[in-house]
Design goal:
The protein has 495 residues and is an alpha+beta fold. The chain is built from 18 helices and 15 strands.
Length: 495
């Protein structure tokens, strides 16, 4: 491989896709020559038409990574981090990104968010080539709203117990303190922290505070963005957070935005840095209809969403009315008990009840979705009473955060292999398949149900995901649960 040619291709790619000015071409070429220890650049031609057609830079970066491993003796992880440095070096500076974003925003907010999204793909912050390998399908049911299921091949599975440790952990003395901190921009990374030279985000002001917006490197859905607080502070759910969410959709009405719950098991994977998730995609919950209207007066409506977990929806044009009622529900739920439905808000000084909040705007109407959550555990359900129950852990064991509680499941990559093994095991005896595939011990229920119902593995997974959200529901969709929810709403409205 001629590394000089790859350097020229990389610079040409940056001119085409990363807004590198022609006046800066020689400057950056010389910087790259120094980096690689070369004396002069490639003097031949490169196929600029082909480079212009590339949807992302993998075709250029992969040979450079191989060169660094073979010729420079770098380990694969080191070589990958060096490639992040190189593409970050050729990307627009953060201040330039901010100026372009602001200019585009003045004319059309959608153009500004699309600019940042496209840049994040073209400079490989969003590893789109990996994300595109994710397996995604829609799940339809005769008795309920559709869900979206994905087997994520670009991100490893996390453990609830590891996530929970972060809540009580002191702020790290490391730098940056976590992967969401402002100081990640331009950070070189190491074995335990990803390289971030190609990260770009833009500043926001939400409820008078400094926040930033970037895109998720894993983009679980269209324009999947992350909005994070300037400071490394823990997550919370309160009036201030609702104000921040409203400010965001006022600025970007083409996006939804939501805050994960602030407790382990029912919250997100990063609880020690305040952040939101949003984007252009309409998650299944946001498309579901109302099942029961509790309150409707002068343009303000409170209803129960026809969904598997327990979600309330407040709709109206007057922002303060939405916030007032939302705050009342959140505060009431934090201290509410319903022993008949196993809801206890606190035990041994530990709070259990919280809320997942999501906001979108449609034709100037605010829609605030509040998913009631509780993370209490007991002997029967040591991983969470209102979490995926044990019989479903072989499919999903991680916490059910905002995205999944809203109907988009992100399942671990191991399922690709395990589903193939299950399909094979359908024609084998139990002892035979367990001898060949020992980890199918946790899949016996799946194999039995697939045989009895003549299901495919996807049909089984669809059923599991629906049942997991039913587990998550604090008020089940039965007589006892519906009466319990009615009592809770009465308690809110009576105050």
């Amino acid at each position: 491989m001629e590394i000089e040619k790859k350097i020229k291709e990389l610079v040409e790619y940056a001119k085409i896709h990363l807004y590198l000015c022609e006046e800066d071409e020689i400057y950056f070429t010389n910087l790259l020559l120094k980096y690689f220890g070369l004396e002069k650049p490639y003097e031949g031609e490169v196929d600029t038409d082909h480079l212009a057609s590339l949807p992302y830079p993998d075709e250029i970066l992969e040979p450079i990574k191989e060169y660094l491993m073979k010729e420079k003796g770098l380990e694969e992880g080191e070589a990958e981090r060096e490639c992040v440095y190189l593409i970050g070096l050729l990307s627009p500076r953060p201040s330039e990104v901010d100026m372009v974003f602001s200019s585009l925003y003045e004319n059309k907010p959608e153009s500004a968010t699309s600019y940042l999204y496209d840049l994040s793909i073209k400079n490989n912050y969003i590893a789109k080539s990996k994300v595109d390998k994710n397996i995604i399908w829609d799940a339809y049911y005769e008795d309920g709203s559709p869900l979206e299921i994905s087997i994520n091949l670009s991100k490893p599975e996390k453990n609830n117990k590891d996530i929970a440790k972060l809540v009580k952990a002191k702020a790290s003395t490391g730098y940056p303190k976590c992967v969401l901190c402002e100081q990640n921009i331009g950070f070189a990374g190491h074995e335990k922290h990803p390289a971030r030279e190609n990260l770009r985000f833009i500043p926001l002001t939400l409820d008078g505070e400094r926040w930033f917006m970037q895109y998720s490197p894993y983009v679980y859905y269209d324009r999947h963005c992350i909005v994070f607080h300037k400071d490394h502070i823990p997550m919370a759910v309160n009036r201030h957070i609702l104000n921040c969410l409203c400010d965001f959709v006022d600025a970007f009405p083409h996006f939804f935005i939501g805050s994960n719950s602030d407790l382990p098991i029912v919250g997100g994977s990063i609880l020690n840095h305040e952040h939101f998730q949003g984007g252009a995609h309409l998650l299944p919950l946001l498309k579901a209809k109302s099942k029961k209207v509790f309150f409707e007066k002068e343009g303000l409506t409170l209803s129960k969403v026809d969904f598997y977990d327990t979600c309330l929806k407040i709709e109206g044009k007057k922002r303060n009315e939405i916030l007032d009622l939302g705050e009342k529900i959140i505060n009431k739920w934090k201290t509410y008990d319903d022993l008949e439905n196993e809801i206890i808000h606190e035990s041994d000084g530990e709070r259990h009840s919280t809320t997942t909040a999501i906001i979108r705007k449609e034709n100037d109407v605010y829609q605030l979705f509040l998913i009631l959550r509780n993370n209490r555990c007991n002997e029967a359900h040591p991983d969470g009473i209102f979490h995926a129950h044990k019989e479903y852990h072989h499919i999903k064991h991680e916490g059910i955060g905002l995205i999944e509680a809203a109907g988009l499941f992100i399942l671990p990559p191991r399922l690709v292999r395990q589903c193939k093994e299950v399909e094979e095991a359908l024609n084998m005896g139990k002892e035979e398949y367990l001898e060949k595939y020992p980890d199918l011990i946790d899949f016996e229920r799946m194999i039995t149900l697939m045989k009895n119902n003549n299901w495919t593995s996807r049909e089984y997974i669809n059923d599991v995901c629906k049942n997991i959200l039913k587990n998550v529901a604090v008020f089940k969709d039965d007589s006892k649960g519906n009466k319990g929810l009615d009592r809770f709403i009465e308690a809110v409205l009576d105050e």
